[in-house]
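User: Is it possible to get a 3D structure for a protein together with its bound compound? The compound here is guanosine-5'-triphosphate. I've pasted both below.
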Amino acid sequence: MAKEKGIKELEDLPGIGPTIAEKLKEAGYGDIEKIGVMSPHELSELTGMSVEAAKKAVEAAKQATTLVYSTGSEIYEQRKNIGKISTSSKDLDDMLGGGVEVKAITEAYGRFASGKTQLGFQLSVNAQLPVGKGGVDGAVLFVDTEGTFRPERIESLAKQAGLDPQKALDNILVVRAETTEKQILTVERADKVVREKNVKLIVIDSLMALFRSEFMGRGALGERQQKLNSHIHKLQSLADTYGLAIYVTNQVMDNPAILFGDPTTPVGGNIVAHAATTRLYMRKSKEEKRIVRLVDSPNMPEGEAVIKITPTGISD
Ligand code: GTP
Ligand code: MG
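Assistant: Yes, that's possible. Here is the predicted structure of the complex:
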């Protein structure tokens, strides 16, 4: 979106100096457009400036925001260059239209040992590769809710990918979240680290495990879904703001309502179903083989790819 009247940076807005601008950026409000849609009260609360001054800043931000219309073909051109992270399996990449996309949430669900975490590790390594070489040249924020992050495994995958294992590990920022509070806070406060470390992939492994165990019973479901909704909303907003990819793993349950076919259903209900841009259902097959089904995608047909989990990582 273009700006006018010489207002280009937050600092150009009335009443906003470098300190307040920095505060806003840290809180994820780095764009003029974002200030333009804030309420003066919100802005005042966040920055400590008076409501009156905040009103003026919001008004100026609104004025400075002009809507630009893009044609379908312009968007098509832009989408051709959109960042994709390779899964290291050509078949799976092809099914995904090139790999795991930035600015989107990709969810992998499946039973235990189906390869969800392994795919998360592979993406954490591949995201660091240069653009055009299967990566997006960025760092990774890995939120580990199950204590299954394995640096040894990253080391092997990094070697295979031709990366310096030490550097690859240094580029993965791991947060061990034992509670939903910590999981939520990690994401709420991610803006700073995302900008400072050039994070291009956020992994949440697993998205639902803590929510599921902390909010037991029917009575807690409403509260759980509310918290989950704002958690996922923040993830999507990080993806959009910084052009990064989000990969989440999810657990499954048997849906007794499905009488014919596979009753395996991801947990999290409609909120997760609607939020995930792309959904992958992973199944264990013989030995190293895993079947990955593309269940939901905005632009690719449903399909299946067979991958292998080998000592050096994922392959065809
Ligand atoms: P849950 O988190 O339990 O729901 O499962 P998950 O879907 O995350 O499974 P995960 O990705 O951890 O896959 C586990 C499987 O990957 C194991 O059963 C192994 O087959 C394989 N695997 C894990 N680590 C290694 C490894 O170091 N070498 C090899 N060759 N295979 C591994
Ligand atoms: Mg796992």
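The chain has a mean pLDDT of 93. The domain at 79-315 is CATH 3.40.50.300 (Rossmann fold).
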